[in-house]
Design a protein that fits this description.
With 531 residues, the protein is of the alpha/beta class. Among the domains are: 90 residues, Ubiquitin-like (UB roll); 175 residues, 2-Layer Sandwich (Nucleotidyltransferase, domain 5). 29% of the residues lie in helices and 21% in strands. It is built from 14 helices and 22 strands. The protein starts with 5 loop residues before the first strand and ends in a 9-residue tail after the last helix. The mean pLDDT is 89.
Length: 531
């Protein structure tokens, strides 16, 4: 009779025994048992993040992934990758890299889109409403007094679904594995939003039952994973450019989970195409892109970066998998744009440089804009060639902080950045080719997203992340997805706006065009954007 092994998990509250079912990995067991570990690759052993320590490690053969990602000291200390282990005997395990928990914080005034013009308010049917931007890495929401047309407060937090992968495709593949996993991924986001709503209404002493309307925007995958409807269709190429219905057939579950009344209206703003979500549509609404001069480009930076080009007649939209580097994830010393994040690096005399740190405290890591600045500085100083190789830098990499020498930009981090920025550059060039517009001739460039608001435009152009246009044509607009969602919640012009955009919309899938690959390769170089 075969007896399944038992995993004895060490937690701050003591030892917990988890029965192990053969055929699953330790990572899957931990996640399913409510002890998620960090993971960016969906358990394929290619990210090196799902770290655990195993007391009986010497009895288990190392895998190639573990040898690649773990140092000799870590291996001697029993560190392993949980996604690589299928134990055949009892183990004593401790999680070394637990999944980051979602802590909700206030949205600062400078995190809202900067220039968005007001729309005509619709006659309110409810007193309070909520706008939600459901991102791959972050969730942001605001509570509004619809009658007064006043934003009362905002919250931001990490999307806890990251334990199932840092990117859209990995999460979709995880959800496709089983109904149970799909439901768990959905539950994570639903619970997180519920916590934010409780936090914000408790602070303002507003009854959750008084919220009469909720509007959500986001990329199509995140919206479908939340609603549990049609998300995994995105794994089939025929759905990559088709609008998908991701509106829940019944919102009762969401009403109950969020503590809302049975009469509360919960709407999902429709997507533009398979991998082109309503977050881009919201940004187009917020910037009034089709009212701008021909040659106006919008880039919404994120894990799934989306972009739209208005050529005066057609609104060409597409998306590209930039990865989470712009949001500080996937970088060894990376973090989100919060207190302790290096967001600015300025050249000084000689080899000296100055750091700008959010919150005016000791640095803890580097966020996306600081990463751009660091790469630009290294290129200008000759310490990094255009191929992305360090020149004259020894050791583990480039030390960003003299006071915190563990904050090091490794060679692998440069590689991750290059791929992310090459995806953006290739997408921009590809759209411009389709419209017959030179990249340098763009009339306006809207850099959107939390990452976009902190960018140094010159540095972003030096490394090829933004088009080489005069700086006065570049607008750093912050979170236009949330701004457009707020407009949809409050405006009386919603239906007309959607109809006007739909009349000129052209959804493009770059994967169907072989020229995208050559543009991607050309934009891997750390130099101004190449057409």
């Amino acid at each position: 009779m075969n007896i399944s092994p038992v995993i004895k998990l060490q937690t701050p509250q003591g030892e917990i025994q988890l029965p192990y079912q053969p055929g699953t990995t330790l990572r899957d067991l931990l996640v399913a048992s409510g002890f998620p570990v960090r993971s960016a690759c969906g358990g394929k052993g290619t990210c090196g993040q799902c770290l655990i320590r195993v007391q009986e490690s010497d009895a288990i053969a190392l895998t190639e992934g573990e040898i690649r990602w773990l140092s000799k000291n870590q291996l001697r200390s029993g560190w392993r990758l949980s996604c690589q282990l299928n134990p055949a005997t009892n183990l004593h395990v401790r999680i070394e890299a637990p999944a980051i928990k979602t802590h909700w914080r206030h949205l600062r005034d400078d995190e809202y889109a900067s220039f968005i013009k007001p729309f005509a308010l619709r006659p309110p049917t409810n007193r309070y409403g909520v706008a939600i931007d459901l991102g791959t890495t972050h969730i942001r929401l605001t509570l509004w007094d619809i009658v007064a047309g006043k934003r009362l407060a905002g919250r931001a937090g990490l999307n806890p679904q990251a334990c199932y992968g840092s990117d859209v495709l990995t999460r979709l593949m995880e959800a496709a594995r089983s109904k149970a996993i799909s439901e768990e991924i959905s539950k994570l986001a639903i619970t997180a939003i519920g916590q934010a709503l409780t936090s914000i209404t408790k602070k303002l002493t507003i009854d959750l039952q008084a919220i009469g309307e909720v509007l959500l925007v986001g990329n199509t995958a995140m919206m479908g994973l939340l609603s549990g409807k049609n998300a995994t269709l995105l794994l089939q190429p025929e759905y990559w450019t088709q609008p998908l219905d991701i509106q829940p057939d019944d919102t009762t579950l969401l009403q109950q989970a969020w503590g809302l009344s049975n009469n509360a209206i919960i709407r999902f703003m429709p997507s533009l195409g398979g991998f082109i979500g309503s977050d881009l549509l919201a940004g187009i609404i917020a910037t009034r892109l089709i009212d701008q001069p021909a040659g106006a480009l919008l880039i919404d930076f994120g894990t799934n970066s989306e972009m739209a080009l208005w050529d005066g007649e057609k609104l060409r939209v597409t998306s590209t998998a930039g990865g989470p580097a712009f949001e500080g994830c996937g970088i060894s010393c990376g973090m989100t744009g919060e207190a302790g994040a290096i967001y600015r690096l300025k050249s000084g005399q000689g080899a000296h440089f100055e750091l700008g740190v959010l919150g005016l405290c000791e640095p803890k890591g580097v966020c996306g804009s600081g990463l751009v600045d660091a790469v630009a500085y290294l290129r200008r100083s000759g310490q990094l060639d255009k191929v992305g190789r360090y020149q004259g830098i020894s050791g583990d990499g480039f030390v960003l902080s003299a006071t915190q020498p563990s904050i090091i930009l490794k060679q692998s981090d440069i590689d991750v950045f290059q791929r992310a920025k090459a995806s953006i550059g290739a997408g921009v060039c590809w759209l411009c080719h389709q419209a017959g517009i030179s990249v340098a001739a763009l009339s306006r460039v809207y850099a959107c997203g939390a990452f976009g608001r902190l960018l140094d435009v010159t540095n972003a152009q030096v490394v090829g992340l933004l088009p080489p246009v005069p700086i006065d044509r570049v607008y750093l607009e912050g979170n236009t997805a949330l701004a457009g969602c707020e407009t949809g919640l409050l405006s009386s012009e919603g239906e007309n706006l959607l109809a006007a955009i739909g009349a000129v919309l052209q959804v493009n899938n770059m994967a169907e065009d072989h020229t995208f690959e050559s543009l991607f390769v050309a934009n891997l170089y750390l130099q101004p954007m190449q057409e």
